[in-house]
Amino acid sequence: MSIRIPRFWISIAVAVVLVAGFIAMPVLGPSRPRVAAGSQAPGSAALSADEASLLDGYRHVEVASVSDAMEKVTGKRAYMSHHMRPIFPTKFAGFAVTVLLKKEANHDSNALDGMLTAIDQGAPNSVYVMVVEDGSDIAGMGGLMGTAMSARDFSGAVIDGGVRDVAYLQKIGFPVFGLGIVPSTSVGHYRFGGANIPVTCDGVPVSAGDIIAADNDGVVAIPRAAAPEVLKIAREMDFKEHSMYATIEKLKSIVEAVKQFGRI
User: Fold this and answer.
1) Of the N and C termini of the chain, which has fewer Cβ atoms inside 10 Å?
2) Given this model, what pLDDT does residue 241 score?
């Protein structure tokens, strides 16, 4: 003998199942989760313990201290100008992947292939350092390139040129420094000039593998060979400066604090 269930109760049961299934579904954010820093991506080598430790240090020290330490160690300017600004407040450090775009009008659909390949071949913890010749009003990158860099867990990008699609870059949280925000394109106006070659980015020499450190004060490039010594001195400077705040408040005198700590 079969039991007939009223249609009303069947409808209630279906609704309960659907609601339970909806609640169990994962909540999707606006963008995919980024790979943890230092983890391995397809086709890339994982960081050594020394490299990971070095990057971690630069991610925690202030860029102003790094700039001062670079001047003390090398006697040279290593900071980019006040024109190089972030599209949103950020702090990052990574190893430079350099790209040069040469100014040249063309109708070659493959003229910029190399700048895209440099992204696809980049390892996690890279910083994309692009120089766009005479390009302050030309967007060197936008949302598509930023999405690719984010997917490959780049630390950020520094563009000696313009940036566009900033609303989308902000949405996915990919940090970019550039000379300005413009809607233009490099397509048809530029040709790829090389990747992982020495470049001069906003007046500062950068080679592939150099450490790029950036925060709201600006961007500094640290030659790889000098990076451990510069980090050591920058940490010492940070410690002194942070210790001085309480002393200045207590003594109500910056002159006395400088006498005690020798840092300004």
Assistant:
1) N
2) 83
